[in-house]
Design a protein that fits this description.
The chain has 350 residues and is α/β, with parallel strands linked by helices. The protein has 11 helices and 14 strands. Helix 9 links the parallel strand 9 and strand 10. Helix 3 runs parallel beside helix 4 and helix 7 crosses helix 8. The longest helix has 23 residues. The two termini are 34 Å apart. It binds beta-D-galactofuranose (GZL). Beta-D-galactofuranose (GZL) binds next to helix 2 and strand 9.
Length: 350
């Protein structure tokens, strides 16, 4: 806000000086012909990494939104899933005196100090995707993301309805979790644990798969070695599901409605939906990565000196291998389940 007020006052000052200069016959524009009013809006974006198809789509959304042609100067830094790299990135953005910092935090904790440093020099911070757990919510101006707990609840209500239809009780479930401490992991895991308590399911084991295919495969190999009676593999993102499916097939087992076990996943990226059509993934809960346009709306409001909404949610759906379960109810709300078709996949942006 401070920086925006500074830019606006500076702009007004230039207009007055420019008018005075024109009337006295001299020019005040810089040699490049750029006035402050034409200055690009500089945005420092600290991205988690490139661990998954979802993350790639999220990065594309940000890069396609904040282009030079549209008047932005985007500084994009990939943290390779390390918080220390994100803290370093934020400090470099502060040194470069960017207009806005956008942070996709790898985990929820450990941000107070560096966000206080950004606040102290008046650089607004916008959080995207996962949440930050800070003592003072004024350390960030706004957040764009999704309700991860609801995603987990939708998945578990679908599983309950599916199990009832199949006459399955007392499900044995393994959970390949996301990065421990990431909001998506905390909430998707807690939804499963609550449903297991509610429905008498048995969670055999939960292990982090870091949202990657390689780690998802390793974790699933270990679980297959330990348990001979897995009914459901709950994968906290599609790339873990791809790895788990590799391990299941390598162990001579099958996943699907007529297989040894069913796989449930999150994200609903393109390749995940192809596995849904093939029956390998029974349900894929969408997690919409297209945050760019929502972040731009927030920045435009702040450029006008207006206060943005603190929390903005993206829209997302539920995708299944068949239409046996048409919708699921969570709380007072009903959520439609869409059967995946080739046309549906080809109609989606990611
Ligand atoms: C969810 C996001 C998670 C995705 C993974 O919004 O934080 O991180 O589910 C990604 O694919 O790696």
């Amino acid at each position: 806000m401070f920086k925006n007020h500074r830019r606006r006052w500076l702009g007004a000052g230039i207009v007055l000086l420019f008018a005075a200069a024109v009337s006295s016959g001299c020019s005040l524009l810089s040699s490049s012909g750029d006035s402050q009013e034409n200055k690009a809006i500089t945005i420092g974006f600290s991205q988690v990494g490139a661990e998954s198809d979802w993350r790639t789509a999220n990065s594309i959304s940000i890069k396609e939104t904040f282009t030079e042609k549209k008047g932005y100067d985007l500084i994009f830094l990939d943290a390779q899933q390390k918080q220390e790299n994100q803290v370093r990135a934020i400090r470099s953005f502060i040194q470069q005196d960017v207009d806005y910092i956008v942070l996709a935090p790898v985990i929820e904790t450990g941000w107070d100090t560096v966000l206080k440093e950004a606040k102290s020099v008046g650089i607004p911070v916008i959080i995207v995707d996962r949440m930050v757990d800070v003592t003072d919510e004024s350390l960030y101006a706004a957040w764009v993301g999704t309700d991860f707990r609801l995603q987990g609840e939708k998945a578990c209500e679908w599983l309950k309805a599916y199990a009832d239809k199949q006459g399955m009780t007392g499900l044995n479930i393994v959970n390949i979790q996301g990065t421990l401490g990431a909001t998506a992991q905390i909430e998707r895991t807690s939804a499963l644990e609550a449903a297991a308590d509610r429905y008498g399911w048995n969670i055999l084991e939960q292990q982090p798969g870091e949202y990657t295919q390689a780690r998802g495969r390793e974790v699933m190999e270990g679980m297959l070695g330990k348990y001979g009676d897995i009914d459901v593999v709950y994968c906290e993102n599609d790339n873990e599901a791809f790895g788990a499916l590799e391990a299941i097939e390598a162990a001579g087992k099958t996943a699907g409605p007529d297989g040894d076990m069913i796989v449930i996943s999150f994200d609903a990226v393109r390749d995940g939906l192809w596995d849904v059509i093939n029956g390998k993934i029974a349900l894929d809960v969408e997690c919409n990565p297209m945050h760019g346009p929502k972040v731009e709306q927030i920045i435009m409001r702040m450029e006008e000196g207006k206060k943005p909404a603190k929390y903005t949610y993206v829209k997302e759906g539920l995708f299944s291998m068949d239409d046996s379960i048409e919708s699921v109810k969570v709380g007072e709300n009903e959520y439609k389940v869409k059967k995946v078709t080739e046309d549906l996949i080809n109609s989606r942006p990611y």
